[in-house]
């Protein structure tokens, strides 16, 4: 990314040429400035999308000079902020995002030394649709490796969200320089491919949290071939990922999920929303290799059926969170498996499962006594009878969504309100319930937020 104008560009090149005090230019990690930016030392801002970013200006010459002494006459002293001790500056800098921290490093020599304190660089967070993120990662990691050649031992988190310019080259940089990486988020970076992800996973043995949601080219998570050859047949246990989000990875298939499960046996959180090619067979592989899964989402996976829920039920009491929203092939049969074996379930999202009836809700109510959140919106076969069973058994219920449930009336809501005193959120949008029933809920569940579409109730 270029500087604001020709004058600034020359100044930045001169500043970056001084190896002893060089710092990554904010221009590397900020979008290009708008044409209307004023020159000089004035400040302005530009809004790109939802993020407002201060413009980059010519770095002050004080970067190359020692800090002014506080013993000078009052009219010659620096700004009052210079009185703050170093630990106070460090505390302030901990709250700054990566681009702002780089900008602070350009103020003066003291700020430069403080801004590059290793304790501030446990994480890098970059966002922006026009961000030259590959270049930014290369420059930042090079600076962080200055004291420990070729590796950065402090960096544990890299978050690069919605950066369409991120490519495999940027991830290769992270893999080569950050062996202590524990968390990587590249959500929405759709130019990233399997090979780069494999490289990160292979070179970062402590990686526990991986978010590749929206990376449509990613179809698998595995070690590189070279690393696999060096390990035993049980090399799958070498990948320590516990949290994996592959939402909107549309090309993921059962074979890919089989490989993921075999390599990532320590998974506890797995999100496969809108992975539309997955079937029940993929879930069978998952349960075989990953028995510790606590949270699982297969929302909008249209090929998942009751047979898939039968496999998921083998997770038994370990499962706490399950989302099967808009899985149209699921009926009471599959829900009954979940209710019978996963009796410690806390959260269930079954919105849009049109095959779910009062019988399925009754099984949930009688077996999952610790259920706290339930979404059965857009289930037209659920009626007041199912709500009555829910109210008489699920005393811990805090969140309930009945949005667009055509068979729900005020009678069912009143039974829920009279028994579920801890209810905090109730969604009855697009439900034909009378005003009196809503007022009854408000009187009995005083802390409950009611989402509704009745203009007479407020």
UniProtKB/TrEMBL annotation:
One of its GO terms (cellular component) is centrosome. Residues 1-46, 58-77 are annotated as: Disordered. Residues 78-124 form the F-box domain. Pfam families: DUF7885, F-box-like. SMART domains: FBOX (SM00256), LRR_CC (SM00367). One of its GO terms (biological process) is SCF-dependent proteasomal ubiquitin-dependent protein catabolic process. It comes from the Eukaryota. Its main location: cytoplasm. Residues 1-25, 59-70 have a biased composition (Polar residues). Keywords: Cytoplasm, Cytoskeleton, Leucine-rich repeat, Repeat, Ubl conjugation pathway. The keyword Nucleotide-binding does not apply. SUPFAM superfamilies: F-box domain, RNI-like. This is F-box/LRR-repeat protein 7. It comes from Cyprinus carpio.
């Amino acid at each position: 990314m270029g500087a604001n104008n020709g004058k600034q560009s020359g100044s930045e090149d001169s500043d970056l040429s001084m190896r002893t005090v060089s710092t990554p230019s904010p221009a590397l990690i900020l979008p290009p400035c708008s044409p209307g930016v004023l020159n000089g030392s004035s400040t302005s801002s530009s809004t790109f999308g939802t993020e407002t970013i201060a413009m980059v200006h010519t770095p002050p010459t004080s970067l190359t000079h020692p800090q002014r002494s506080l013993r000078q006459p009052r009219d010659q002293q620096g700004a009052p902020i210079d009185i703050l001790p170093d630990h106070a500056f460090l505390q302030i800098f901990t709250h700054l995002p990566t681009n702002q921290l780089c900008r602070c490093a350009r103020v003066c020599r003291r700020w430069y030394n403080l801004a590059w304190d290793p304790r501030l660089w446990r994480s890098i967070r970059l966002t922006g649709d026009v961000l030259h993120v590959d270049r930014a990662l290369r420059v930042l990691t090079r600076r962080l490796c200055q004291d420990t050649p070729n590796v950065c031992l402090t960096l544990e988190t890299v978050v690069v969200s919605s950066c369409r310019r991120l490519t495999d080259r940027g991830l290769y940089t992270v893999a080569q320089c950050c062996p202590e990486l524990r968390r990587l988020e590249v959500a929405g970076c759709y130019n990233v491919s399997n090979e780069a992800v494999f490289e990160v996973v292979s070179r970062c043995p402590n990686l526990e949290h991986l978010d590749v949601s929206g990376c449509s080219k990613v179809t698998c998570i595995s070690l590189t071939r070279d690393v696999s050859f060096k390990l035993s047949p049980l090399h799958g246990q070498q990948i320590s990922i516990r949290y994996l989000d592959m939402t909107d990875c549309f090309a993921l298939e059962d074979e890919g999920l089989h490989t993921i499960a075999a390599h990532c046996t320590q998974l506890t959180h797995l999100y496969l929303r809108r992975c539309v090619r997955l079937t029940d067979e993929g879930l069978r592989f998952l349960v075989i290799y990953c028995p510790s899964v606590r949270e699982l989402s297969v929302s909008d996976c249209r090929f998942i059926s009751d047979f898939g829920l039968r496999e998921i039920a083998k997770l038994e009491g370990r499962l706490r969170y399950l989302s099967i929203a808009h899985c149209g092939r699921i009926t009471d049969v599959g829900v009954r498996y979940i209710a019978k074996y996963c009796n410690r379930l806390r959260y269930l999202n079954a919105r849009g499962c049109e095959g779910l009836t009062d019988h399925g809700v009754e099984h949930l109510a009688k077996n999952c006594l610790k259920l706290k959140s339930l979404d059965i919106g857009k289930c037209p076969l659920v009626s007041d009878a199912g709500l009555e069973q829910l109210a008489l058994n699920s005393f811990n219920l805090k969140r309930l969504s009945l949005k667009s449930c055509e068979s729900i009336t005020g009678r069912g809501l009143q039974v829920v309100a009279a028994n579920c005193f801890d209810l905090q959120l109730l969604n009855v949008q697009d439900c034909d319930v009378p005003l009196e029933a809503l007022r009854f809920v408000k009187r009995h569940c005083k802390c409950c937020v009611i989402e509704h579409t009745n203009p007479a109730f407020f």
